Amino acid sequence: MESASYAPELSFQGRTVLVTGSGRNLGRAILLEFAARGANVIINARANRDEAEEVRVAAEGLGARAIVVMGDAGEAEVIAEMKERAEGTFGRVDIYVSNAARRFIKSFWDTTDEDWNYYLNQQLTASWRLAKAFAPAMRDAGWGRIIHMNGPDGYKGRWDRIPHTAAKAGLRTLTTSLAEGLGEFGITVNDVNPGVSDTERDPTTHPMFHDKAFVDRLMARIPIRRPTALEEVAFACAFLASPRAGAITGTIIHVDGGLDRLG
């Protein structure tokens, strides 16, 4: 193999990257990872424009061109606006990360049809709509990267998160189905599973993470004995989007410290 094949390939200069739910936490870290590596970036946040604008400023500080598209990524009109703005500003989207997700904890007995429809729409139907919006241009260009943020709930199920876990399980099948059909066009489709990540959690939806005894028990189940850093998940996304990851598709990258799989 010629030495030129070993040239660094984690630069995304000239590529355009969309990350849904990138106003804070994991989405923000992923978007800034790509911004730092030369990509044009599209920031999406559901409601907090101040946060989104802070991410834009941070991305531009890293040398990236950046735009903000506000709105719930589960809504068809928001995805249509993302497409219109992306194409008008950058030409097309080369890489997208379907990350937007709202947290949900409610027992089966209390879960309503509205809960079921909302979470399936936001986490599964949204990813379908993103593919319909952006895969055609990737196909025409002969190159693209699609990354779905999944998680352990989608593989194991949870009594207190049934719409969320059903959506994530469906997302896994969507990933493999898209990977099968899009591969011939140079497009890869993969899941990233961050496990327990080092993120801010609302005490009203995740009170257990504000209980030290619970957190200590949870950390004891993780072989590396700590949460996954957001930057570690972001780097996994950059790796999957790189040219030399072109033979990796339909798979899952677990960035979870070995939670529930080792030992």
Describe the overall structure.
The protein has 263 residues and is an alpha/beta fold. The chain contains eight helices and seven strands, in the order βαβαβαβαβααβααβ. Strands 3-2-1-4-5-6-7 form a seven-stranded parallel beta sheet, with helices on both faces. Strand 2, helix 2 and strand 3 form a beta-alpha-beta unit. Helix 1 packs parallel to helix 2 and helix 4 runs parallel beside helix 6. The termini are far apart. The model has no long low-confidence stretch (mean pLDDT 90).
Describe what is shown at a glance.
By secondary structure, this protein is an alpha/beta fold. About 45% of the residues lie in helices and about 15% in strands.
Helical residues, percent: 40-55%
Question: What does the largest sheet look like?
Answer: 7 strands, parallel
Overall pLDDT level: 90
Tally of DSSP helical segments: 8
**N-to-C span:** 38 Å
Neighbour order of strands in the largest sheet: 3-2-1-4-5-6-7
Low-confidence stretches: none
Question: Percent of residues in beta strands?
Answer: 5-15%
The general outline is globular
Number of strands: 7
N-to-C SSE string, H for helix and E for strand? EHEHEHEHEHHEHHE
Structural class: alpha/beta
- For this entry, what is the oligomeric state of its chains? single chain
CA gyration radius, whole angstroms: 18 Å
